[in-house]
Amino acid sequence: MSAIAKHGPWALVGALGAAALAIVATSRGESINALWVVVAAICVYLISYRYYSLFIADKVMRLEPGRATPAHRLNDGLDYVPTNKTVLFGHHFAAIAGAGPLVGPVLAAQMGYLPGMLWILAGVVIAGAVQDFMILFISMRRDGRSLGELIRAELGVIPGVIALFGTFMIMIILLAVLAMVVVKALAESPWGTFTVAATIPIALLMGLYARFVRPGKVGEVSIIGFILLMAAIVYGGQIAADPYWGPAFTFTGTQLTWMLIGYGFVAAILPVWLLLAPRDYLSTFLKIGTIVGLAIGIVFVAPQMQMPAVTKFVDGTGPVWAGSLFPFLFITIACGAVSGFHSLISSGTTPKLVDNEVDTRFIGYGGMLMESFVAIMALVAASVIDPGVYFTMNSPGALLGTTPESAAAAVTKLGFPIAPEVIAETAKDVGETSIIARTGGAPTLAVGMAHIISSAIGGKAMMAFWYHFAILFEALFILTAVDAGTRAGRFMLQDLLGLVSPRFKDTTAWVPSVLATAVCVGAWGFFLYQGVTDPLGGIYTLWPLFGISNQMLAAVALTLATVVIFKMKRERYAFVTIIPTVWLCICTLTAGWQKIFSPDPKIGFLSHADRFSAAIAEGKVLAPAKSMDDMHKIVFNDRIDAGLAVLFVGLVVAIAVFGIMACVKAYRADRWTALEADPKLAPAE
Amino acid sequence: MMGMAASQGYRERLKALGKCVCDGARLMVGQGDYGAYVAHIAKTHPDQAPMTEREFFRNRENARFGVGNGSGFRCC
């Protein structure tokens, strides 16, 4: 085939993408259509998939189509099964896509859509998709081992334990942040609380049905559950309006926190078939369906972007989260650009199901591109609503006050003029009493989605339905993640404690299980409580910590990938993983350093603590604290958070040092030293 | 005749697509292909009776949320 026929169509895709990017990047003042953002993103994905992922597959990995994968060699019909690549792509995508790519871009929109969009696109091509693809490849060549085991084998026992401990801590922060997103979305919202609470009896019913009535009929039971769920959303409107039930389902953030902690503990101990598995069906199918629906909605409605391309908050003075564009944008958007958590999925069930080595390119690299597209859609959803509404929803209550008038005045002062009537009207449209300071990203995304979908289906009358549908969809899979995460965290903890006392390793014994579960729930519950009661609104404090921890896990995973490339004696291609590793280390270490030591109390935990403890010494109460108790709480929380940041920084430095040592050793060796499983050991039948 | 063959191919492809979607949806929630499992047991362990569909369902459910290594953990 001639070069023109081979590359010509791709050159056209490239030209289209470049044109779309140029339109997005050069428009100033006038609003552009969201479709340009979507077109630019898709072109970038296509080009990077066609060329860069192929380069990685051919040069770095040298995938062998004829080499037996673990699914063939170890085929047991259960965990190891050769699986159709499209089916496996769906499985992998459903496992990696969650709340992260939806929330991060919404928060990042405070700097305008352009910085976030560019980072999502550049990050996924160079870092995120590379990480997922590399870890999938490495795990597949080693019988589908987990990230912890891979690090232990390739880097050593100590880095393995460090990574396991780090993963556990990251998981705790992740669960706390996710749970906080739910709490923030449901606080003072009887409609939302009712629909989410209704998922529990619905799931129990489904669980019993799938266990005893019609075992294994996943589709059937999911349809029943879905119908009940929709009924709950419709009925929720009446519940919220009811003079008795409305207040009965209205809870403060603190009350919801305690409920969630209690729920998390019980749910993690109940048998999986009763609550967790059936809700998993609902959340998975709803998630995929909504993502597809949102994509169709954006293309069909073609909304205009209302948010400016770049706002003045790139200097770090924004109300949603503190810190300047570098490094904080790059940790605010984690999932969608690069997410360390995917390395756990890529070394989980997926590598055991790969039919042919070459499929990993589509599944690993392609799957991450797809998640990145979800992040782009979230960014679009946050940018098509009135920026005044965006800042009304995402600024802390301490800044906004509680009435539409005070909020409108505060947001107008920020430079985004909005009338109090618009705030009140928007709240009424979505069926809520107030939209002021509904931080956490989920409500904003829900307003954006309701805005887009109701333009296509149902108009304004349906807006409240779509808003609560979006809230439910997010809450549902976050709660599933909280359940499953608490369980996974419990096993990890038992593994870690088992290093000290072997008695803890037994995951079936009652006492260690309950104990480990309680520690897990207590740990994320602590950060959740701290975040919810934080007068600044916990997202402001905790989201950066989550971003730092998630990106650090990515740096750890990419370090492993770099070491493996060196061990395969392909170091001349190691830049593929070294560039993103170095970039992530720079971002996370700078951000971690600033979170600890920055003299600006808005950013640095320690200077914030100092400012408040100085005030305590003088007997003064500083806003946003309302009492001396609040003051002590703020100082205590700050020190804990600073300690955590120190821990994360130490972790990534340690892994980087071990990684460099392993690379040097591999470079000096005169032969291949990577530890791949022998493809001929257990040949395919 | 040709029209019939074409429509048959079309129907077959539609059936294959349907199976792909169903398999995909089931695997998303951790339920693998029972048929493939039975075929595998029949081929490699003809002396063993495979699990029933119900047992297979429960086995997969436990595996998804079961033991360690973050299995069953969905991402952020």
Automatic annotation (TrEMBL), chain A:
Residue stretches spanning the membrane: 32-52, 93-113, 119-140, 161-183, 189-209, 221-241, 256-277, 284-302, 322-341, 362-385, 465-486, 507-529, 541-566, 573-593, 642-664
Coarse class of the protein's main subcellular location: membrane
Record's bilayer topology term: Multi-pass membrane protein
Annotated ranges, domain CstA N-terminal: 33-591
Subcellular location field: Cell membrane
InterPro entries: CstA, CstA_N
Keywords: Cell membrane, Membrane, Transmembrane, Transmembrane helix, Transport
Pfam families reported for this sequence: CstA
Family assignment from sequence similarity: Belongs to the peptide transporter carbon starvation (CstA) (TC 2.A.114) family.
Protein name, UniProt field: Peptide transporter CstA
Species, as recorded: Methylobacterium iners
Originating gene: cstA
UniProtKB/TrEMBL annotation, chain B:
A Pfam entry, by short name: Sel_put
Protein name: YbdD/YjiX family protein
Organism in which the protein naturally occurs: Methylobacterium iners
Organism classification: Bacteria, Pseudomonadati, Pseudomonadota, Alphaproteobacteria, Hyphomicrobiales
